Structures are given as structure tokens and as C-alpha cells.
Amino acid sequence: MNYSSGSTSMLLLAVGFLLLSSAFVANMVEGQAAPSIDIKDAPPTVSPSGKITVQWSVMGSGKIAHTAVHWDTKPGNPADFKSYAKATPDFASLDPAQDAPKEYTVTFDAPSSGTLYYVVHAIIDGKNVYNPDGERRILILGVPGLGLPGQPPAIGGLPQAPAEAPPAGAYGAGAPDMTLLLGIGAVVIVVIVAAVFMSRRNKS
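^ that's the sequence the OP posted. Answer follows.
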């Protein structure tokens, strides 16, 4: 009986399975270490010209060269910090860069009226990272108007709500689920290996 052809096929399939498994593990590790921003505390409303304190965490791993609250009194592009006229200066230029994960807190003066729109931004290993829920806003007390419906009530019944969702793929969202694809590929390879083995066994 000659099994050279079948053995070669099974060896190639086994090598393919090992490569896919390695890619699967690497993808999981990369996903766990990917940098992100988590806003821990921010007021939904503020008095005219009052103090605003925002606290956030830079998660994952990497070197943080800059992080700040970028804000304006008109909506901006939540995937472009340059679309906001103002930024908190406290951690705008970190030299030397700081290691993630790390927490930051800033306090700055609110405008006298209107609505404040903002995002939290960081530069980590040379890449732009934003808070994943997009542009947020802080309502100035005494200004007519309510936030978006379906949000938890805040002081004076005015809710905190993101004013605009970020564009798809701005922060890595919208990419294919590589974990799922690699898992399916691994299952297919196992099935093929089993089928080849049974076929060769029956022929023997």
C-alpha cells in the first residue's frame, strides 16, 4: 500500500492548521493590547463659566506622547482632533512619553453659554486614538434645550449623550472579525484532515 500522496496531503493540512492557530493566538493578543480610551468621569451639565473636570484612562499598551480633551462650542469631527478649536494643555506634550495604561484628569473653564462639544484624544506609538463613543457634549445650565432621549437623567433633568457617532472604521471598528474567520478556517481544516484520513483508511 502506498500512502505517500495521502501522507503529503495530511502533512500540508497539518502545517496549514498550525499556521492558522498561530495567527489566531497572535490576533487575540494584539486585540487585548490595542490602545483605547475610556472616559471615567465627565459632567453632563455645568454652570456658565464653571469648572469642568474630565477623567479618562488610556488602556492597552504603548507610549503616550500626547493626550487631551479637544473641545469647541460647535460640533466637530470626532475622528479629527484638529476640528476642535481648543484643547487642554496639561498633557499636550509628554516628554518623555508615558507608558500605557495610565489615568489622566484635567480641569478647565466652561464657556459662558451654549453647548460644549468634545472628544478625548491621545497619540500612542505615533497613532491617533479617540474615545470610542464619538463626540460628547456638556450642556450649559440655563440654556434651553434637552439632550438626546433614552439617556440617564442628570442635574436638572438634562442628560449626557454623544452628539454624533464616529464614522465607521475611525478607531478600528468595522474591520472583519478575524477571530471568527480564523476559528472557522481551523474547523474546516480539521474536517478535511479527518476526511482524508478516513478515505485512505477505507482504501487500505
